[in-house]
Structure formats: structure tokens, C-alpha cells
Amino acid sequence: RMTLILYILQAKAVVWLYEQPTSSILWPHPRMERFINDNSAYRVHTWMGSYGAASPKGTTLWCARPSV
Fold this sequence. Notes:
- By secondary structure, this protein is an alpha+beta fold.
- The chain is built from two helices and three strands.
């Protein structure tokens, strides 16, 4: 479902930002890999603990714009 939503947002030129744990299995999924290859998708890695969270959980942010 998330891949379909991202395709719709991309087609409408909506800037999207999607947050997932670094260990997420969504990004290596074949449909998501195809979306990333067909569209401009940028990512940045951060640690939630760096921003006051109790857990140092690794998080990846994906965005349609390089300014992520």
C-alpha cells in the first residue's frame, strides 16, 4: 500500500517524507525498490536518541526532495 501511495503523491508532485526504522523490511521489497529506481528518492539516516528520545533507535527518512 505504501508504494501505491508514494506513486500517487509523486504523480501529483506532492513533496512526501516517510520515516521508517532503519531495520524496516519495506525498502528492500521489490515494489519499493522499483519505485526508488523509477523516481527520485533521497534518504538520510539519523538516531532518535540524538533528539531527546529515550531510545537511540536508528531511523531512516526518505523524501522526494534532496533537501531531506
